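User: Quick sanity check before I run a bigger batch. Here is a single chain. Can you write out its predicted 3D structure?
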Amino acid sequence: MNVKVAIAGGGPAGMVLGFLLARAGIEVAVLEKHGDFLRDFRGDTIHPSTLDIMGELGLLDAFLALPHSQVTQFSGVVNDKVYPFVDLSHVPTHCKFLAFMPQWDFLNFLAERGRSYPAFHLLMETEAVDTLKEGGRIAGVRAVSPQGEMEIRAELTIGADGRHSTLRNAAQLPVKEFGAPIDVLWLRVPREPSDPGQVFGYIKNGKIFVMLMRDTYWQCAYVIPKGSFETIKARGLPEFRSGIAQQASFVADRVGALQSWDDVKLLTVQVDRLEQWYREGLLFIGDAAHAMSPIGGVGINLAVQDAVAAANILYPALAAGSAPDLQAVQRRRTFPTVMTQNLQLLIQNTFMSRILRDGVSKAPPKQPIFLELFRYFPLLRRVPARLIGVGFRPEHVRTPAA
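Assistant: Done. Predicted structure follows.
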């Protein structure tokens, strides 16, 4: 198979970039190793800046017709006291809310729209396993599918295959590791109509428990010290259920829905980024270029912004048949990546680590002074709203519609 651009990975970064390039008339193949997008325990947040991109593409009304929930304000419950700390109603975007939508709906939406363009090829159950090399440059990918091995030759190859990127390992580009003192356990708890509205998280007894609202259940993130999952499992599922009930008492009668450890998925948190995102004929974006902490749920937003910036920068050269400036993509996206990661590292290495340490040492809970400021000075809630909802460098669609 021969295309202009081969994209490994059908996540948010790969699908958005593939859609934008095909929309502009650039022939592109997106390789997705799974047979569908129905995989749970993935980020479900669609940020205001991403909704703006949907609007710029003329797709916002159709997109918001999909089942989703909208949240404008977030609060945290610390030692049973409610602290509002995010207010999105003033962010400088068209949609002043964060949409919770299963990621499979987001990806299916892009896939359906992409298929309307002749230049868009979505290859399901097709996994990129290595790069093709020609005269020192990357000339495409080797892939496996149910039909067997195949070669996809391309003028440009994009690695968008996530934090465990196969192509990144094949390219052997240097990676800067930052570490993380936490891991996250993802799980579901049934939701009742009488439950409280969206609250970002519950902090008590040295534990951090985040709950994201879906129609019939809560998607929950239980933050644990790095590498402690086996110790937690050894204590038994009843103790784990009891810990959840202590954090959010209104679900105490439903924690029995966790019937085995198979209902609990471990996310090993890592924060890293490539020192160089490219080599000749190959570019990395999204988590393949920079693995983010789950703090703030901004990983999806950053991946989408990477894709839009890459499309804007790469399109003119691809359309003209010349070599695109891959370094320009890294230059454009380094600042928001570094700033976001630095903020995440600050939060996880100071605030979250201290909470988890207090839980082990049984230290008395400390009064969160900065949250008190959010409580009494509502204007301050616009700062985290801007960082979460828009980010440090929002991108806008500059590619044409063929």
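The domain at 2-40+102-178+271-354 is CATH 3.50.50.60 (FAD/NAD(P)-binding domain).

User: Great, the batch can go ahead then.
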